[in-house]
Amino acid sequence: MQEPEFTEIKSKEATVPEINSQTGTITKLQPPVQSQEQWLKYGEQVSEFLGTLPEYLGSFFNQYKQPLVTLGLVLTSIVTVKVLLAILDALNDLPLVAPTFELIGIGYSAWFVYRYLLKASTRQELTSEITTLKSQVVGKETPEA
User: Fold this and answer.
1) Using CA atoms, how far apart are residues 110 and 123, in angstroms rounded to an integer?
2) Which of 12, 63, 80, 145 has the CA that lies 20 to 30 A from 101?
3) What pTM does this model have?
4) Residue 27 near residue 19, CB atoms below 8 Å
């Protein structure tokens, strides 16, 4: 059998400097040097990309304005609810705060029932206030009674 012949091919880009064979010396290997033309080419590509970026972002925002605003509102509401729940959880861990809030809630509920729900005239007053508030929010005229 014949042994295959191997020829050593040297490329211009990947040349390895000779390493010192002396003991105790450290030779640093230098990375291959890129030509100035490649750096200029990369610089032009980056410059072109950054030049067109504001136009691209502006057209993207104009095209998808409604979904982006909706997504922003959803994310903002999620963060707000998380922060509010964290604050309420922290307040609930303080001694005597949770029972105090419960007493305040029970007292307000009792006052609301006494003020608006016991008599027919006050129930009609509450109904008219709710109807007025609903018409202000929705924007429709209140029906004349």
Assistant:
1) 15
2) 80
3) 0.43
4) yes
